[in-house]
Amino acid sequence: xxxxxxxxxxxxxxxxxxxxxxxxxxxxxxxxxxxxxxxxxxxxxxxxxxxxxxxxxxxxxxxxxxxxxxxxxxxxxxxxxxxxxxxxxx
Length: 90
Fold this sequence. Notes:
Layout: E1 5-11, H1 17-26, E2 31-35, E3 38-44, E4 46-50, H2 51-58, E5 71-75, E6 77-80, E7 84-88
Antiparallel strand pairs: 1-3, 1-5, 2-3, 4-7, 6-7
Helix pairs in contact: 1-2
């Protein structure tokens, strides 16, 4: 895994909360910066979230494509399918 920084920035909304909480659980080394109206998540090399954990946090079956409705910005290369979303540096 690369040691280069990647980040995600979400709107700080109820719709984004399951994704943010899942990222906190699945990326314990990441840093979370809560600012008015947005949450910035920084990681080294990779940030990853899975549909199972997001669905658990939301209390319903989630489509990971819903992530894009609350995502403001990102830095890294996206890899995604129906079960996971990740950004990393190659």
